[in-house]
Specification:
There is one protein chain. This protein has 653 residues and is of the alpha+beta class. The protein has three domains: 259 residues, Beta-galactosidase, Chain A, domain 5 (Distorted Sandwich); 147 residues, TIM Barrel (Alpha-Beta Barrel), CATH 3.20.20; 157 residues, TIM Barrel (Alpha-Beta Barrel), CATH 3.20.20.70. Strand 4 and strand 5 form a beta hairpin. Helix 4 packs parallel to helix 6, helix 7 runs parallel beside helix 8 and helix 10 packs parallel to helix 12. Bound molecules: 1-deoxynojirimycin and calcium ion. The site of calcium ion has 5 residues, from loops.
Length: 653
Amino acid sequence: MTWWVRHKKDNAVKSILSPDSRTNVQLFLKNSQVFYTVTRDDKPIIKKSRLDFEISGEEPLHDKLKLVRTRFFKHSETIEMLWGEDRFIDNTYTEGVFYLAEDGKEHRLFTIRFRVFNTGVAFRYEIPPQPKFEAIAIKDEISEFNIDLNSSVWQIPAYQPDRYEYNYEHKVLQELEESVHTPLTIKTPNGFYLSIHEAALYDYGGMTLKLDESLALKSDITPLSDGTKAHIKLPFQTPWRLIMIAGSAIELTTNRIMYCLNEPPAGDFSWVSTLKFIGIWWAMYVGEWTWAPGERHGATTEHAREYIDAAVRLGIKGLLIEGWNEGWEGDWLENGVNNKFTTSTPDFDLVNVASYARAKNIELVGHHETVGFVDNYENQLEDAYNYYAANGIHYIKTGYAGSKIVINGQKEFHHSQAGVNHYQRTVELAARKKICLDIHEPIKGTGIERTWPNLLTREGARGQEYEGGALRPSHACYLPFTRLLAGGMDYTNGIFDITNSVKRISTTLARQIAYFVTIYSGMAMAADRPSVYEEKFPEVFEFIKAVPTNFEKTVPLLGEIGDFYVVARKDRDSHDWYIGGVTDENGRTVHVNLDFLDEGAYAAYLYTDASDTHYRDNPYGIEIAVKHVGKSDAFDIYMAPGGGFAIRLVKSR
Ligand code: NOJ
Ligand code: CA
């Protein structure tokens, strides 16, 4: 249903109501400037906030703007995701499109498109082709999100050397001093849980958020090295600016509007398959092996063949091999400018390893560590992907270590327009070669994996590589309410050798398997060495072996930001359910009601912390039990300090 309104007077307030009529977005012009507000149940969420652009070398737009016409539209469909946390997502919204034009001789045009969902609001700017502007440089985008300054925010800082890899901090909004990354999670004094983020980020700088001089929370688009925010060609549409709205923290965790705002798959991606993998990886982190060639080189033909055999024994389909190529010698962070992506070290024979993997039905996960030297990588990109494709490799993990990336000889932010476009080139090239990606040090997730389902996962937050002192138990209790609203994450789960002498892990054993449920990833790594799984805790590994990487649906159960989180997910390929829970440094008992289960009987395999388990001095204490349950049952489960639990519910046939 569409309806149009042509405006003679443009100072009237235009309203868009959500399908449930409870959220109301109002748009209006005042002194030729455009503003909007958002309320839900008549309670303010976004107070009067500006929407505007500044274009390099041009007069400001806002001086002579007028609203020419408005179009309203209702839309409802169920979208189906090829893989992920939920197979079906409801995409129901009311759309309002506001066509604006400049009075006077330049007569520049632009459009603001709003979509109002029951669980959030999104808008974007669209700049149509117009005679005077074929290409423009964006000096600034002024998208304000004027939220009560007494709100709580959970944030990580932007423009820092470790990109998105920081600990979340809880602050009052008015205390924000620097720019912060999105998703930015917010609790307002009038009881709303919000997350401000963006969707469909293409050919533009990533949006960070900052309090401006007038204390309005405002978009701060990541600049390029030339100081502009983006160079664009018209017609152009910006990414969607998204405000997720929930009544509780736990409800926020399954907000899927980000995917609704992305386009359907850009072709046939039926060849894409999610993957669990082990890797020649953690042995380097704990100092047993090295990335660089030498006596303790990890990525040798021999080790790779041993790990392939181990993957077969463990029932894990994939194997990552890091340190296989030329470029790791000496200080690899400095020397990475010369990394070669088609030349292996003398002790690693890719053809041999790949054919052995094929014979054993194991998928290799290739590795490209660019160290941020994107120019060097781009020069080899086509060859590098062809090399892996020719060897039957369908998965690549990429990495962009370093505080900036080098593109066209300039140091740029990972989350700048130049970075966004580079990452996109890798995704599209990989799709052409039928290769799936796991991007570390990535551009944040904005739901583009709906369109490019071969982008199976990203890192993009502090992961377990920071264990050994820089991760607190609360970190994994922040992620579901913050970073994971931007999509899956390769957290490198499942470290069982908790008390190793190099990187002591802040965890209990049960918590390490809980991560496979609490932190979704289309490519999920069982990160410890296979010998640890086989020799130390084979019965706990059974859970990792069983847990899927593709779910039919996700039911958020319990949680508070940074304190604890419990979630249930149903396998996409069976009738089985999985539940995971994590807590911060405080132990607690949670009441898990099983009413989300389907009708019928289930055998529940429980992996829980013991009463004397503690992440600091007794991390291995675990209890494994089997119970027979149905949907009218419930569990009271104890999570030790720094602990967690995992449950597999197998439906009786
Ligand atoms: C950082 C990545 O997050 C990590 O997984 C990888 O092992 C190193 N870079 C080296 O490439
Ligand atoms: Ca990293």
